[in-house]
From TrEMBL:
It is found in: Membrane. The chain crosses the membrane at residues 71-92, 112-134, 195-214, 235-256, 268-285, 305-322. The lineage of its organism: Bacteria, Bacillati, Actinomycetota, Actinomycetes, Pseudonocardiales. This is Decaprenyl-phosphate phosphoribosyltransferase. InterPro entries: UbiA_prenyltransferase (IPR000537), UbiA_sf (IPR044878). It comes from Amycolatopsis sacchari. GO terms for molecular function: glycosyltransferase activity; transferase activity, transferring alkyl or aryl (other than methyl) groups.
Length: 323
């Protein structure tokens, strides 16, 4: 009798241990509902990133046209249209990366990766966002619609594979900032000077390379996971890119300031504007060099000194153009 009991006990197959990953995978799927899905779509649209779109007001401001009601209205249309079109890209990007995001410690909480927003709904919402944004752009200018179309095409190329190509990924992300600045000009039919384009183009590259450099430095210090494209860069290369970009930005802005001085009947304010501008670039470079530079808007919102320098720069230009 005892032998049979012992045999029964030994025949019991132990349950396999559940790993943390398996336990997490087996958790109850996120509940879906119309309201929850709608909020998930809004969150995936990343309204916090819309702060980048204030760049559409730069061209009207530097052309001394921001107080013109018609120009301001066109710039506001460009701002709203860019918010919608950019959000359509975010939706597609998260839908494409859903599997990778589910394996990521923080991105797994994104609405699509968490199962709150179905992938088909994300694609459908993206089409709606893009369609509404493109339609809205025609209220300002057909040229604005072209800029938005090019932006969407380039960013989709990034989402579908170009983000894994070294250098190309830097250029594409940087082009997003440049196109925002161009959008403000074409929406209000404002001619953009070569200095304006140089400053915005290399300023964009400076911020993008700085963010990538910070990610590399974080990886070297902590071993944190980084995007696959970064594995093809070295810290010294990215440092070279952002340092070169900073030098070109400062030089281009200085030449632009001297040109503005001639247009402003010899006013000293454009030259004075170089002081807060250069200090702001160098201040931002401190964050980059320390490996703490994240999203540009986050860096600006956290750095009070940088905010003060930005206000001083805007004030000097406002005196130049409007007084």
């Amino acid at each position: 009798m005892t032998n049979s009991v012992n045999k029964a006990e030994t025949d019991v197959v132990p349950e396999p241990e559940t790993t943390p990953a398996e336990a997490d995978d087996s958790r109850t799927p996120a509940k879906r509902g119309p309201v929850r899905m709608a909020l998930g779509v809004v969150k995936t649209a990343r309204p916090r990133q819309w702060a980048k779109n204030v760049l559409v007001f730069v061209a009207p401001f530097t052309a001394a046209q921001i107080t013109n009601g018609g120009v301001l209205l066109d710039a506001l249309v460009a701002f709203a249209a860019f918010c919608l079109v950019a959000s359509s890209v975010y939706l597609i990007n998260d839908a494409i990366d859903v599997e990778a995001d589910r394996a990521h410690p923080t991105k797994r909480n994104r609405p699509i990766a968490a199962g709150i927003v179905p992938v088909p709904l994300a694609y459908a919402a993206s089409i709606v966002f893009f369609g509404v944004g493109l339609g809205l752009s025609f209220l300002a200018s057909p040229q604005l619609a072209i800029v938005l179309g090019v932006y969407e095409a380039v960013q989709l190329g990034y989402c579908f594979g170009l983000k894994h190509q070294p250098v190309v990924d830097l250029a594409i992300v940087g082009s997003g900032f440049l196109m925002r600045s161009i959008a403000g000009g074409v929406a209000a039919s404002i001619a953009l000077s070569q200095w304006f384009l140089l400053v915005t183009a290399f300023g964009s590259l400076f911020m993008v390379a700085g963010k990538r450099y910070a990610e590399i430095m974080l990886f070297e210090r902590t071993g944190a996971k980084i995007r696959s494209s970064l594995k093809k860069y070295s810290a010294s290369y990215l440092r070279f890119v952002w340092a070169t970009s900073a030098a070109i930005v400062i030089m281009s802005y200085s030449l632009w300031a001297f040109e503005l001085r001639e247009r402003a009947d010899g006013s000293v304010w454009p030259v004075i504007s170089m002081v807060p501008f250069v200090i702001a670039v160098l201040r931002y470079a401190v964050d980059v060099d320390g490996g703490t530079a994240g999203e540009p808007e986050e860096v600006v919102l956290k750095d009070r000194v940088l905010q003060i320098l930005g206000l001083l720069w805007v004030a000097t230009l406002a005196v130049t153009f409007y007084l």
